[in-house]
Design goal:
The protein is an alpha+beta fold. The chain has two helices and four strands. It has one domain. Strands 1-2-3-4 form a four-stranded antiparallel beta sheet, with helices on one face. It is globular, with a radius of gyration of 11 Å.
């Protein structure tokens, strides 16, 4: 089981993604949630649920915004 943490860094002006900082087992890398709700880059897709859980664990408002962002753009 990997140790995963993630945080929202912002949303680019085009509003087509949400920028994240994801740390897996101590290695940090940038990532994005795309309009279809997928995580980019693709090597993170197997961690998608854990990443979203890490972002939203303590923040219901971010969870609501992410859900809205992904659902309204599908």
């Amino acid at each position: 089981m990997s140790n995963i943490s993630a945080r929202v860094m912002g949303q680019p002006a085009d509003r087509k993604s949400i920028t994240l900082s994801v740390t897996i087992d101590g290695k940090e890398q940038p990532a994005w949630i795309l309009q279809n709700g997928k995580i980019f880059p693709g090597n993170l897709s197997s961690y998608q649920n854990e990443i979203i859980d890490a972002i939203t664990k303590d923040n219901r408002e971010i969870k609501r915004l992410l859900t809205e962002f992904c659902l309204t753009r599908m």
